[in-house]
């Protein structure tokens, strides 16, 4: 079951205190970014955060589960906590801050000019 756009929009709004939150579609679900750092997934209308010590400490009673089959465990955030934007925003900010910054993108190599076609004889 794919996540609903409304769920993702709501989570992005609730996490706004953390910084620039963006959602990107990934394989039918959504990846969440805070200031360019990939920190969470929304899969099957559930919120999963990358496991960090800061996130575990903030959540308290942690539930871990894989966001999709074959994945390692991530921190599963109970839907009852989503309505507290200050709490959720702080969790997003703490988690993103504990992750390394995104790697700089490599500059694209300039395209080589096309060789002229040889005339047909």
Automatic annotation (TrEMBL):
Residues 98-121 are annotated as: Disordered. Pfam families: TfoX_N. Coiled coil: none annotated. Residues 13-97 form the TfoX N-terminal domain. It comes from the Bacteria. SUPFAM superfamilies: YgaC/TfoX-N like. This is Transcriptional regulator of competence genes, TfoX/Sxy family.
